[in-house]
Amino acid sequence: MDAAIEVADLRKTYRGRRTGEVRAVDGVSFRVERGEFFGILGPNGAGKTTTLEIVEGLRRPDSGTVRLLGRSPWPHSPELTRRLGVQLQASSFFEFLTAREQIETFAALYGATKARAAEMLDLVGLAEHANVRCEKLSGGQQQRLSIACALVGDPELVFLDEPTAALDPQARRNLWDLMRGISAAGRTVVLTTHYMEEAEALCDRVAIMDAGRIKAVDSPAGFIRSLDAPTRVTVAAGQLADERVKELAADEAFAVDDGTVVFETRDPRRLLTALAVDGAMDGLAVRTANLEDVFLHVTGREWRG
Amino acid sequence: MSLDTAEARTGLPAGAGSGAFASLFKALGRGWIRDRSQIFFTILLPLMFMVLLASVFGGGDAAASRIVAVGDVAVLDGADPDDFTVTRAADLDEALAILREGDADAAVVQDGATVRIYPSATNSTSGAIAAGNLSALVDDVNVEVLSAAAPGTPVLETEVEEADGGALKPIQYLAPGILAWGVAIAGVFGAAGTIVDWKRDKLLRRLRLTPASVRTFLGAKVSVNLVVALGQTAVFLAVAALGFGLELSAWTWFAAPLVLLGTAAFLAIGVVIGGIAQTSPAAAGLSNLVTMPMAFVSGAFYPLALSPEWVQWLSYASPMRYLNEALQAVVVYGEPPTAVLPQIGFLAAFAAAVALVSWKTFKFDEL
């Protein structure tokens, strides 16, 4: 069976009157297997959206090839777009329509029934708001409606472009659950995001993108493993005697700042067991490496969201 | 590199074509009906202009001249009350004060055989008309006196026949012009505003990723605009006929294809504006910049024949002029469609030329 997506050496340069030449996409290649939850992670301006638009077939690259479900996204073919579900960054709605009218219109474009439209509205938790005009929905509700419109044609491959941007934490968590469900239903999902924890929580594999290039692709766990960073264990002030700190650290690094002790260990199990025996668990914090550390490692610069 | 629009537009989806068109038409039509500003600009604003202009141009033409008689004015005794409304003033100063206030059109004093007329300077047009009417009245009295003195001597008589059988009340020339203007603003503002909206919400981009083609969507959008133009025309002509006494000829139905053709031309102008403007206020401003001067040089609000010569020359370049002329010919004068073929030809050529310009200059990447 063909891969869901195969992208080889995409390049796209914009020539702006004021900005000069901008290499938005600079030699991007990746492959997404069927059923995978694939994330493209990078700061704003990294080229995520342009890459996604080229893959979807909205833009032609200057060079490079794209295969979606085994075929080229250009020219526009109904046979292919029928198998795709797309959510764009802008909430692209018909003006002055209610949530139900909106999704029923999209359903008609995909040849789906009104029952299917109602089902999708229910799936994203908007059944109660079916008769509310789109412009009156909250940001999170609009994003969920947009995702419902993407799902109404029962797609095999779903593109979500920064769906949680500008949402409050609660609305973001709700969307995560929804996206997990979409993936669990066997669909291939491609998500762009500039939230580390989102990529970590949802994606099977993540491509880290910066300045138009993909710097590395791996699973979140694989990235963190390959970083081979120590676990940092923080113990609150007054819990441990000075000589005990040295004993517990053994040969590993530690730092004391105003009584608070920070251990950096490769063997957290030994250290935590010892701390439990000592009863020094109050205010204990354990921090393992995360994607933020990975980004720093991979790109050589601090994450700036 | 620009978007491959030709490719994006290829072909209707197999099977889903007509269903997609119907649902898009419904969605866009609903959106139009629920947008109060659209209703205001396409239906109410032209009607407001008709009320306004009909009262400006229509008032006073059939009304009697208002005369202030100072003292005893014998010549007014034989006056027809339909032609003259007479009030009295004690002296000339009081009469002139009344004139200055604009409460009368002329004052008149009779001193034996001399009838002295003081036309209003405040309202010089109606003052001149009143003075003319008074002179005619004096002439009538003279003719009566002379005929009585010399019976059998033939006298000349005038008979006034209004052009076009007296049917051309102001509404007859105002209605087609205002309708042409209404069709123009609906088309220009509608297309320009829609394109700026699409630049913002990327609806067209989203629809390109559905099985429906962009061609189907644009077809549905233009169809909504054409249906709106027909509805606008029907409402406008109905109000003009029932409320303002516009007499509709048997060829009035031919206004429908004329309005559709005009709408096509104005939509094309709107697309060009929408391609330039980046925000809604900019689109509205540019639309105004085009439609307002066009209305004034096209005889929409004021008869072209009474306009300065340079305005008449400019009008030849304006599609609104030809729509106005053609509507007037078929709706008011009852001329057959063959009589407006030149206007139809110009409108079609104009629509095609502007559509070509908008096609070539439009940056599809922005949508």
UniProtKB/TrEMBL annotation, chain A:
Q: Which PROSITE patterns match?
A: ABC_TRANSPORTER_1, ABC_TRANSPORTER_2
> A Gene Ontology biological process annotation?
response to antibiotic
A single GO molecular-function term is:
ATP binding
NAD recorded as keyword: no
Q: Where is the ABC transporter domain?
A: 5-236
Q: Membrane topology type, per the record?
A: Peripheral membrane protein
What is any one of the record's Gene Ontology cellular component terms?
Answer: plasma membrane
InterPro entries attached here? AAA+_ATPase, ABC_transporter-like_ATP-bd, ABC_transporter-like_CS, ABC_transporter_ATP-binding, P-loop_NTPase
Domain of life where this protein originates: Bacteria
Q: Tell where it localizes.
A: Cell membrane
Pfam families, A to Z: ABC_tran
**Keywords for this entry?**
Antibiotic resistance, ATP-binding, Cell membrane, Membrane, Nucleotide-binding, Translocase, Transport
Can you tell me which family this protein belongs to?
Belongs to the ABC transporter superfamily.
Protein name as annotated:
ABC transporter ATP-binding protein
Ranked from the top, the taxonomy reads: Bacteria, Bacillati, Actinomycetota, Actinomycetes, Glycomycetales
TrEMBL record, chain B:
GO molecular function terms listed in the Swiss-Prot or TrEMBL record: ABC-type transporter activity
Q: Which UniProt keywords apply?
A: Membrane, Transmembrane, Transmembrane helix
Question: What's one Pfam family the UniProt record gives for this protein?
Answer: ABC2_membrane_3
How does the UniProt record describe the way this protein sits in the membrane?
A: Multi-pass membrane protein
One GO cellular component term:
membrane
* Membrane-traversing stretches: 39-58, 178-198, 218-244, 250-273, 285-305, 340-359
Compartment(s) where it occurs, according to its Swiss-Prot or TrEMBL record:
Membrane
Which InterPro entries does the record cross-reference, listed alphabetically? ABC-2_transporter (IPR052902), ABC2_TM (IPR013525), ABC2_TM_bact-type (IPR047817)
Residue ranges annotated for the ABC transmembrane type-2 domain, each copy included: 131-365
The keyword Methyltransferase appears for this protein: no
Q: What is the top-level taxon of the source organism?
A: Bacteria
Would the keyword GTP-binding be found if you checked this record's keyword annotation?
no
Chief localization class?
membrane
Name this polypeptide is given = ABC transporter permease
